[in-house]
Amino acid sequence: MKGALIYIMLRFIARLPFHSLRIGLLRLVGAKIGRCTGVYRGFEVRRPSKLTIGKSSVVGHDALLDSRMGLTIGNNVNISNQVMIWTLHHDYNDALFSETGAPVEIQDFAWICSRAVILPGVTIGKGAVVAAGAIVTKDVMPFTVVGGVPAKPIAKRNRGLSYNLGNGIVPII
């Protein structure tokens, strides 16, 4: 029953009209979220007590953040619309279809493009880019651009990143 109430409350929080209100309530239920961060409407969080988001990061509309095994998102990270980040799934070889998983880490200045999927146990390195629609099954090295299914390196990214995503957050979206 407690889990159902938390789920309903999180769905309500996801629809509120202001970042500050959504973030304040997420903090109230245990999420650790840095200043100047934006969490856009429609997101879903599973187990907010194991979610950490750094400062000046952005989580896009309808993103799914599964932090049941632990999810750490660094500073100035762009999680675009409809991204799914999973830390827990089922073992398809287990006779009982048991759950298995591991924490996910997304380091500073990473960009996860729309509709990308990050699977359990993956680390996305500093400044890395995951292309739209990619499915990431293995760690992504810093400043590497990956794409495809499964995601593979397709380019390198410049290392001199100094932008601040917190400056562009629209407060009411």
Automatic annotation (TrEMBL):
Keywords associated with the record: Acyltransferase, Transferase
Source domain of life: Bacteria
A cellular component term, taken from the record's GO annotations: cytosol
KW Transferase (keyword) present: yes
GO molecular function: O-acyltransferase activity
PANTHER family to which the protein is assigned, alphabetical: ACETYLTRANSFERASE C18B11.09C-RELATED (PTHR23416:SF23), SIALIC ACID SYNTHASE-RELATED (PTHR23416)
Protein family according to the UniProt entry: Belongs to the transferase hexapeptide repeat family.
Name of the protein: Acyltransferase
Organism listed in the record: Mucilaginibacter pallidiroseus
